[in-house]
Amino acid sequence: MQDDWQALANFDRQHIWHPYTSLKHPSPTFPVESASGVRIKLADGRELIDGMSSWWAAIHGYNHPVLNAAIENQLKSMSHVMFGGLTHKPAINLAKTLIDITHDDLQHVFFADSGSVAVEVAIKMAIQYWASKGQPQKQRLLTIKNGYHGDTFGAMAVCDPDNGMHHLFKDVLAQHLFAKSPECFNQEQYDEEAIRDFKSLLKNNTSSIAAVILEPLVQGAGGMRFYSTSYLKKVRELCNEYNVLLILDEIATGFGRTGTLFAYEQAGIAPDILCVGKALTGGYLSLAATLCSSKVADGIGTGEFPTLMHGPTFMANPLACSVANASLKLLLNSPWQQRALSIGQQLSIELEACRDLSAVKDIRVKGAIGVIELHKADDIHWMQPRFVDLGVWIRPFSNLVYVMPPYIIEPNDLSSITSAMAQVVSEIN
């Protein structure tokens, strides 16, 4: 069996691209045999405690019997039908739940295949809203630096153009507006300079701006940066003042990760358009959704261009919708808020011990997210295998060693993760 895996791994290394890797100089990959609970079992028999929830998604852990059953039961009736001209209960029930658990203003749902596509749909909605309102010149987006919104071209265009992962494509992307990102973690404060820059760009370009797009409170893959609720409140006020739409990208932060079901709740605001994904299906299948207010839906539907021009082949896939329904029910019927709080408290205590290490620039925790920021980027080629040697799965990038474990993780397993983080960071030269 090990010989079979070795041959497969060799084929993988030579022929398969993994996320953000080079085929010529591939990053190490570890063949997985199975996964259950918070543990990933490698083909060589080693078990790893998962600190990544498969990039924010597997909030209930792996191989959950309730989620397995949801897919198995759905298979008995249909695995897929096109959503063009047809509908089905899994999609309708999921839309009902999403409308119920989000802000009252958000009454309309578009199902997408992934987070990036959900952002593409949100951008289309915003631009088409203004075109239908007779203002087709409003086509630009305003955002803040250090953001990340996905890997497709529309989404890439609102990622940080200089420090992000897509600077190579800067000259072929749509040109949007980027304000200074806030430097404010204290919930009662906002960065005066950042909000001044944001307001100036908004005021001076109102005639061309269709919407503001932000990751609320936590900027994810753009740097794992946190900022205050006060700043987010001010952004909402300015969007109202200058009559532009507000898109919130909660693909990473949604479904409890920051300590509330959605991060925007902590600021007491509502977006005009909301993107969700990742944890929507509990990490089982790719599915995302873009929700919008009746203002946006009516503005598009009663205007010059009433048909929203998007329709993925696998939109509202019944298997994905069924497991999403089961995942949300599982989440809402669990003590998810207490679990996120407990994870955050333990991360705060145990990661604090790393603050005095020479390689460490900052330690920060928000909800069930823990981050060690290093003074400089380090090499994942040695860090990743070292974490595996220590029995945990953590995927660092650039100068960040961070975790967002499944909500079901036990304190002793979380301590194994934080101990491994401290050990590896202490070994950085």
Please tell me about this protein's structure:
It is a single chain. This protein has 2 domains: 2-63 and 335-426, Aspartate Aminotransferase, domain 1, CATH 3.90.1150; 69-332, 3-Layer(aba) Sandwich (Aspartate Aminotransferase, domain 2). It is 36% helix and 17% strand. It is built from 13 helices and 16 strands. A 7-stranded mixed beta sheet has the order 4-12-11-10-7-5-6, with helices on both faces. Helix 11 runs parallel beside helix 13. The model has no long low-confidence stretch (mean pLDDT 95).
Residue windows where pLDDT falls under 50 for at least 5 positions: none
Count of strand segments: 16
Q: How would you sum up the global shape?
A: globular
Taken in chain order, the helices and strands follow as HEEEHHHEHEHEHEEEHEEEHHHEEHEEH
Q: Please compute the radius of gyration using only Cα atoms.
A: 22 Å
Q: How many DSSP H or I helices?
A: 13
- Average the pLDDT over all residues and give the rounded result: 95
Helix content range: 25-40%
Strand order of the largest sheet: 4-12-11-10-7-5-6
